[in-house]
Every structure is written in structure tokens, then in C-alpha cells.
Design goal:
Largest sheet: 10 strands, mixed
Number of strands: 14
Radius of gyration: 24 Å
Number of helices: 10
Order of helices and strands: HHHEEHEHEEEEEEHEHEHEHEEH
Oligomer: single chain
Distance between the termini: 66 Å
Length: 316
Amino acid sequence: MRRRLPSLNALRAFEASARTLSFTAAAAELNVTQGAISRHVRALEAEIGVALFVRSVRRIDLTHEGHVLFRGVRSALDQLEQSVGRVDRRTAGGVLTISALPTFAMNWLMPRLEDFSQTNPAIEVHLLTGIGAVDFSREDTDLAIRVGTLGDGDAPANSARIDLKMTERQEGWRAHRLMADELVPVGTARVMRGVNSPADLLTRRLLHMATRANAWPDYLGATGIPHEVANEGPRFGHYFMVIEAARRGDGIAVVPKVLVEDDLASGRLVTLQGDPVPSAGAYYLLCREHQWQLPVIKAFRTWISGQAKLYATARP
């Protein structure tokens, strides 16, 4: 029996408009004019006999019927993309765009990427850096690596926007835990000379992260040291900056251990004896839900999970 379906172009125009709540953004995504998007949406509304958007001067919003249709159309297009990917041999290769935290990318991921390239020569990795939230509905990013916590339910269930607080699996995207975020104090051997306990850290100049002001309070609080006395000292905008300051002997920084594994192994930096202090979060690999099983995504996910396990078992 013949299917009674609207035009696929109209459905794609509607889905992009509903997801971005912008005819302009939908037009840019689909590489057509804004007028073409508007015509497709109006034709769809006329065909099914209901208004899908409430239009105002500066914005559009979905009607109740629009929300209902959007959920179904998005799910259908996601399944269609996934099904095509499963049978299209070209999805086993191509370009994979990854957004990672800057210092994590430089100090942990980049030294390992050649191994991925050698075992997956058909996949070309484009590595970007960022520290903010990832919006898979707007950004041309396949995977992202961020630090966060799981299970707090703070992110809206219908949002692809992922900030530093996340739930493991929400509608539209998924998070896969890679490794714990553990903090260690580090400095040169000269600066750390005579520092034998967490309390001794307060006798040295402390280096701070401006964008992660809770790093020293987290570490000192976990070791029973009042952290209010550790607020003074220079501040830096990225971990690679505060690590470089520590390498230069400017003071002691408290940083995720994963970012300084080579420095500790080479002796450029030293730390206190004892276990690192776990922070509130962990490192996660983030992806759109409907792309989770695509061959190119699965290849990288399997590889980086293996690298994370090797790191966890090999570190002292």
C-alpha cells in the first residue's frame, strides 16, 4: 500500500527548523535559502492541516502539534541515518571531528593519536579544542571530550547541550566515562624540596586556575587542610598555562594527574607521595545518540576506551 508521507525535503526543513528554532539556521545547515525553508514548512503545514510554529518578529516556537511531530520526525531521521550508516562502507572511513579540552588534547590525546591513525588509516581525525558546553544540534562535531559529573539530572532531557553537569544518557546524546579526574599538587624538585605533607604546601607559592577555582579547595579539603588560607597567588586561564608556570619553578599547581603523566615520569615535575585526590567529576566521551554505533564512531570509542584503561593500569 502506498505510504501517505509528506515530502522528505519538507520534513528535513521542518526538523532542522524545530531543532534550531530558527529558519535562518536551518537554511544554513541544509545549504538552501531561508525562503526555501519557509516554503517547505508552510507546504507541510498546509498538507497536514495544522500550524507547526508560532511565528513572531524575532523568533519562532513550536506549537503543541509541532512538538509532537518534531519528536517523531527526529527519531525517524535518526534511525534512517543510522541504518544508512550501517550499510554504507564509506562510513568506516572519512573525517572524524573531535572537540577536546585544550590541555587534555595536548598532553594526553595527541601523543596517542598516531596509534589510532596507524590502526585506522581510513579515518582522518580533525582535533579541535574547547572548554565550554557542546551543542551537537549546532556544532559540526562528531565527538567531544569534557569533564563532568553524571546522574544529577540538571541538563534538560530534550537538550543536546552538554555542560559540566551531565546525565549519562539523555534524549539525543550519550556520555561514555573514560577515566577519573584526580588531582595532584606538582612543582619542580627545587620548589617541592621540604614539602612532605599537604600542610607543607601552604609554605609555598600556590598557582591557581581562574576557570577552575575549586581545584585547590577540593584538594586541600580532602586532605583536611583549611583551604581559605590558599586563595593568594597568580591565576591562569588554562591548565597548560598553570602547568608551564609550575615547570618554570614559579610555584606549585594542583592539576588533574592525567595532564602531567609525562612530566612526572620524566622528573620535570614531582608530587607528594600518596594517592591523588578524586575531584567531583570524570572525563567523558560525548556523542549524538543516533551516531553511537556508526563504524567510525565505534572505532574511535573502542580505541580511546582501551587507551584510558591502559593509562589507569600503567600509572604509578
